[in-house]
Structure formats: structure tokens, C-alpha cells
Amino acid sequence: MGAALAGGVLAVGAANLARAAAVAPIAPGLAWAAGAAAALVGGGLVRVLPPARRSGGAAALLAAGVAAVALGQALAGAPAAVAIAAGLLALGGAAAAAMAPASAPARTHAAIAVGALAAAACANASHPGEETLLGAGVVAALLAAAACARVRGCTAGPRPTWRQGAVVAGTASALVAGAAWLGPWFDGLGVLVAAFASAAFASATATAAAGRPLPGVLALACALAVAQAGRPLAPALPGERVLAAVGPDAAVFVRSRHERQWRVGAAVREAVGPERATHSVAATIVRAATRAGDRVLVLGGSGRQAQACAAGGDRVVDVVDDRPHAALVRAAFAGDGPVAPLASDLPAGRALGVAAALGALPAGSRQAIVVGVLPTPGAAHLHIDVQRELARVAAGGLVLQPIAGDLDDVAAAAQLCAAAAAVFPWLAIVAVGDDAVLVGAATAWPWREVADWRDWSAEARWLAHAAHLGDAADLDAACLGVVDAGALPRALAAAPSTAGGMLAAVAVARPPATPRADSLFAAWTAQQAALAAARRRLAGLPDDADGRAEASALAARFLPIGAPCAELQVALAASGRDGVAFATPMAAARAAAALDPCWRRVAPAVLAWLPAAGDEVGALEDLAALPPPARLVEVAAGDDAHAVGLRVRFPSACAAAFVAALVSGPLPPPALQALRQLADPFVLREAAAALAPAGRLRELLGAWRGGLPMPPELVALAHGSGDDRRALAVALTGRREPTCALALAELLLADEADVRGIAAIALEHQFPGRVAYDPSGPLSERRAAAARVRSLHNRAP
């Protein structure tokens, strides 16, 4: 019974140990080779102990192995490798002591130790690939060696022959190889085959080693426990949720960022979320660089990159899966939240692999190629020969390869840059926040010569808006620079700590261009910098009356744009210097949880007093897909946590829905207020295009938030009816944007005296003390004042 208990615990520990070995960022072949050697040593250690102490030694090794397994799962890199080796050493020794008789020689213990390791490897072989085939061959050799081991000095039961052991080992090896290939497509069948393979091998090993039937029965229970315990992949960090898992591949939902990540072990190969612009940036560049009817190739990924490139429906997009079981993970990426929708419209790929797909295409057959995955250790596109194939297939076109500055392995990202720079004569880096895209081509691509983006379809324009790009000038401004292949080794030698820092080091910076007043990219960049500064300031405030008052004042500055982060939402509940708060504590806590359900883990001291909102489940935690635009207009308007979460996490989709609703008639006040929060130069331009045909441009004034440049379309109101001029004059009061000057000059000459009076107030705010104007003065003086305003506008930078 003690041997049975030890065998069962051993099996569970070995399964988890194999899972830790798969997650740790070390080579699979080296991990199994080191594990086999450690198991041999472990078996020998137990044999060295006196017979009376072998049971205690086995128990101690078993306990040490379980502890090492737990440590290996919690660590990464070299510490994980050390823990894995220690766990294999201890578990191998415990297996040898539990399953071999006391009189068995040292090689018997060693054979059983290797057998236990191989059985764990068999049951955990769950995905196809070169490493699986290599592992299956190594395991088969270990199976044959262990099953054919003969025991001397053991008289219990008949001894199997070498031929019998080889037949059983070969059968088990064939079953293991079949399970490795069937597992990804037939999950239950693959586990069942792996379990029986492990059972067959373990039975053969135990019978060959000890000549007893009991170890064979124990091995069957061990194999079933291994197959069950080794399957699920648990999240690596707090605040994450597994959406789908197939072997080492997993779709994980990061609750703090409302982001889905496709991970292979510990490496993130794709990230999709509101704070990620990689897919939309690449799709926007593809749209700008190609024409209707061009063919675009997307290599790998969940299908979200292909879906973005297909926006508008006039490009032909081909998808190639670089992992055969991508379809099983793709469903988790089809929606907008952590709940997978019932049906997926993501493009299906062909399971060819990157090298095979490129090799089958003629030169210049694709006008653009987009790599759909991030650079991870071992990825195919990190190699220079694959880069040459990319350049060959896209000859005359662009090759786009994404890099996430905060997620990618720095060494892998540097390897990608070096390989791409060695192949492409022109390699540029386009960066939007933490997301970047390497753009490779045979010659420099003229960013500013792209046709007017206003001719694009609405879907394509809003996709560019999601990337914070409003036109070709914004795309040019987002370009960090080009990569100098000659200076690349010296730049990489600086060893930056992040992939983003590495990109900044290798890019040959260009002279910064002066942003236009209506630049969408410049406005978003400034807003992100202000939010980052506000977070830093909140983190340094003390938890006292003055600190809370300053936090409240800081959050009030961002109220016009909806206080778009969890910390600012919480700060709205802090009492100001007048003792009044902008929100109740419970409403603020719920809104913060909608944006980041894990915000309490990193809450600043000045905000830690806020009470918990129930179980801290965010309002978007049960979201599968965004509702249709008509319904989104209703649910995204208002001050409840659900509406706040939708507007902050999906600003482009919400703004597009509000703008589309303008065509049908005026928006209700809550929806208009929500549109005002989401407004930027692009949104105002789209809203003006929806309102102008119906002669309702005056409604655009309600969405024109302070601090934004004046939409050029509003100048037409200065020449409209008296009510139009009156509304425009009121809207100009208090504004200091230089873009308002031309409209203000027109209002100074209005026929209506009350309009001129309001314009005089606006003039004093715009140019205090610089323009003499009397609204009731002679027309000549009013014309002189208007000319003075126009001249000041023309001299403005």
C-alpha cells in the first residue's frame, strides 16, 4: 500500500513537473536530457543508502521533488531550470525506491528512475512539432533501455526476455507518437492514448525490473493520474483567466488590461486588447500602401490581424496558420471580452507553416505580407532565411512585422531587427505607444504621398482611428525612423531592458516635424503623457486631507474626457478642499473595477481607503461581443460603470456608433455628453460629415469639447442664420484655440448687435488687450478689428 501511495503521488508530481518544464524558457531537448541524467543519479543515490533507510530516503526525496516542482512552476529562466533538475533528481530516486525490491542492484533503480521520467513525458506529449518528434524518439530509446533491463538477485516471479521487453517498449513508443499527433485535434482521444501508452511502458518497466505484477497495476493508476493532472494550464500571474488551452498553447485573458494573450509556455505570441494598436497600425499601413484587389498574406496569429487587413472588403487576404491547432485557440479571440461568442467570423487559415507557405508562392505574388505574431524565442521569422523569403514573395511591396515593446523578449526582438535589417534595404519603425511595426521594403516608402484617407470606407477610417492615426501625416509622425544596418550591432550592444527601448536605440531618429493643430496622433500622444504624469503624481500623494484634495483636483482636470483610468475614477470619490466629491465611493469603485478589476493590487496610498465594490468583478467581465451600434448608443451613454467601461475600453467603436446615430436625428443629452468626452479632431470631422448634408452643423457645437481645435466645417455657421451665428459666438466664448480666430473675425462683422456683443467677450478671451473693438462702433472700425484678428491668426505658429 505504501508503494501504491508513493507511486500515485509520484505520478501527479511528475506530471506537474513536466508541465513546468514545458513552461520554463529552456530548450525542451536540454530539459529532458538533464532530467534523464538527474533521474539516473537519483536512482543511484537511493541505492547507496543502507536497506533499512531506503524507505525514509525515498520519502525525503519525494517531498523534496514536490517542493522543487512547486518552485519550478513559480519561477522562470535559470532558477526554474535548477528547480526542475532538482525535482527530477528527487522524483527519480523516489520512484526507484518505491518500485524496486531492496535486493535489486543499482542499475535496476536507475532503470526505473528513467522509466518514471519517460512515463511522465509520454502522458504530457500534447502538441505536434519538431520538439515533440525529437522527444518521442528520445522517449522511445529510454523505453527500450529501461524495459529491457534485467535484474539479478531477484527470485520473485518469472524474468521477461529481452525480446518481450523490446516488443512492449516499441508498442508503447508507437502509441506515444500517435498520441502526440492526435492530441491537438482529438483532445480526449489523445489523453486516453497517452494514458495507455504510459501504462504499457510502466508495466513493462516494472515487470522487467522486479518480476512482480503489483508494480504494473500501480503503473496503470499512475499513468491515468499523469494524464489527468498534466492537462490544464494555470495562469502565470494574478488577475488572469485561461480562456482556452491546448497543450502549451493557451489563450489567457488579462483582466487589468482587458486583453487576450496567446501564449506558448511563458512567451506571448499575440496580444489583443483596447490598449494594443499593433493590428490596427499594421492594417492601416497595408490599406495606405495597397490598392483595391491587391493580395495580402497574413502569417500566423489568431485571425484578428487578418480581420483588420480585410476591413473594407476590397483587399484579398490569405491566412496561414503556423501552428496546426490554431483553430482551437482562435475562438477565444473572436469576441471583444473574456467570454467567447457562439460563432466566430475570424478568417480561417491553412495549416501550412511559415516556411512551407512562403516556399509555395512565386516571387512578387503578394503586394503586402503581415506577420501576425510577435517575436518569441524560436519563431520562424527570426531567421534570416525566412526574411529572405518574405522579401522575395513581397518584392515591390511591404513586409510588416509587429513588436510589443512591453511584452516581447528583448533578445528575440533584437534578433528580428538584425535579420530584417540584413535583408531589407529600407527598414522603418512605426510606433504607437508600446506597440511597433517593422516596415521593410526594397526602397523607401513615401509616407506623405498616400492618397487622401477620406476616400477610404468608414470601416477602414475607424480602424485607423483605433490606431490613433488620422491621415498620412500622422502615420509619418508615428515613424520613429529607419534602421541603419551598419550601426545596428553597436546599438544592440547597449542591452536595453525592454524591446521598446531596443527599438528606440536602433532607430535613426529624424528631425521632429511640427504637428498640425488637428493631428490625431499628436493629441493622443499628449493625452497619454498627461495621464501617465497624473498616475505618477497620485502614487506620490500622502493619505491625508491635503493629499485627497489634490487627488480630487487632479481627477477633475480629466473629467472632460471621462477620467479614463481606474486611479482617476477612484480619485473622483475623494473630497475636495470644499469637502465635496465628484462621485460616491461605491460608484467610483465600480467604475474603477470596470476599467481594471485588479486596481487594488497597485492602488496608491491616497486611494486605498475606498471600500470594495462587492466581489470586484468588473462590469465588462461577462462581455462576449459589443452590441450593435444602435444598442451601443444606449448602453454606452450615462455615468454607470458599464457605460464608463465601454467608453474607455472601446472608444473608437462607441464614437462610431454615436456618429452613426447622428444621421437619424439629434442625440439625447446623455449620448451627446458621451460623444463630447470621446471627441477628437477625427470624430468631429466624421460628425460634421454626418450633419452637414442635413443642414444641422449647429449640433456639432455640442460635441466640440474645450481644448480641441475648431472643426473647419463650423466656419460655415458664421455665414448662416442669425441663430447659427449666435450659437457659434456663445461656443467661442472662453476658448483660446488659434483655430477659432477666423470664425471670430467673421462674427465681429455680424449684422446682429447681440452677436457682436458676445463676440467681443470671446475676443477678449482669445486676444486679451491686443485688439481694440467696440461692438457698437462704426463699421470701418469693426472691419479694422477683424483684419487685426486675421493677421494675428496668420502669424500664429
Written overview of the protein:
- By secondary structure, this protein is of the alpha+beta class.
- The protein is about 50% helix and about 10% strand.
- It has an 8-stranded mixed beta sheet, with helices on both faces. A 4-stranded antiparallel beta sheet has the order 1-2-3-4.
- α11 links the parallel β5 and β6.
- The protein is globular.
- Residues about 1-35, about 70-80, about 115-170, about 180-190 and about 210-235 have low confidence and may be disordered.
Offer a few descriptive terms:
797 residues; alpha+beta; eight-stranded mixed sheet; four-stranded antiparallel sheet; 12 strands; 52% helix; globular; disordered N terminus
Which helices and strands, and how do they pair?
Elements lengths: L1 H22 L4 H21 L5 H21 L3 H22 L6 H18 L6 H18 L14 H21 L4 H24 L3 H16 L10 E7 L2 E6 L4 E6 L2 E6 L5 H12 L5 E5 L4 H6 L6 E5 L5 H5 L23 H6 L8 E4 L12 H10 L4 E7 L5 H14 L2 E7 L2 E7 L16 H9 L5 H6 L1 E5 L4 H5 L6 H8 E3 L10 H20 L5 H13 L8 H6 L13 H11 L33 H7 L5 H9 L1 H12 L6 H10 L2 H11 L30 H11 L8 H7 L5 H14 L12 H17 L2
Helix pairs in contact: 1-3, 1-4, 1-5, 1-9, 2-4, 2-5, 3-4, 4-5, 5-6, 5-8, 6-7, 7-8, 8-9, 10-16, 14-15, 16-26, 23-25, 24-26, 25-26, 26-27, 26-28, 29-31, 30-32
